[in-house]
Amino acid sequence: MNSEESIKFLLEQKEAIVNLPDKRRSPQFDKWKRRTRLIIEKVFSNGSLHLKEFDGIRYSLSVFSLSTPEESFQRVYMRGLEDAMGLIETCIEEIKDFGLDESEQEVGGNNMGENIQQVRKANKIFISHSSEDSHFGKAIVQLLRGLGLKRDQIVFTSDDDYGIPLDDNIFEYLKKQITNGVYILYLLSDNYYDSVACLNEMGAAWIVQNQYTIIGIPGFQFSNTKFSGGAIDPRKIGFTMDNTKRVIEFKNNILNQFDLSIDEMDWMEVYKKYCDTVEGLCKHK
């Protein structure tokens, strides 16, 4: 992929902004956002400052209530589009002025269109957890369903509705899910690190290099030596279930990963229910 191709793709995304509907969280917006993010990732590499800046753009309010006026949501949405347009323009100017650093570009084919088609997102989530923490895992399942994931997109072995199909071998089934690139949520606790089965799951996923998110049950310390000495990269940022700000970031990551969208009012109901559930679990912990 050369500079000319990169500029072409970025220009297309910039021009597409003016044709997006004014309605926030529309399917057209979600499609535009996913493609723009992918193009920036392919042009500048995963982990680049450009990609981090794009991921940091807000299109909706992080905190709101039932009395929040619609114009407040709309104002943040339009400002987000303006910020995105400015970032794309900056990316184009940098390429024109300095060209592309080949060492920072994604390794793969030379054709940008082919690269975009080759990107494969996970279509399932596996919640790796200790059975002792199943009540916390159920709260995560509740949150994921509220975001729009279907029942068959979640593997949670402590609930038959999301568990191993009848007559399947549990170890072979989990091995197949991990090998197929399932997205993993590690629900960490002292119970997790005391479980041989959990550590085997972690090791298998580490070998395959699955995408993952680290979640600690309330009270779990990421300074725990079991965590820092384990297979999971201790430099990767995780969060505990009662960290409300990080839960919102987690929501955004899941929506992006699984091509989902949720109305802000619906999200507020899902979020409140989740927070109430976690608070109740903490009281009875």
Automatic annotation (TrEMBL):
InterPro entries: TIR_dom (IPR000157), Toll_tir_struct_dom_sf (IPR035897)
Gene3D superfamilies: Toll/interleukin-1 receptor homology (TIR) domain
Gene Ontology BP terms: signal transduction
One Pfam assignment: TIR_2
Domain of life per record: Bacteria
TIR domain span: 121-258
Name of the featured protein: TIR domain-containing protein
Native species: Clostridium tagluense
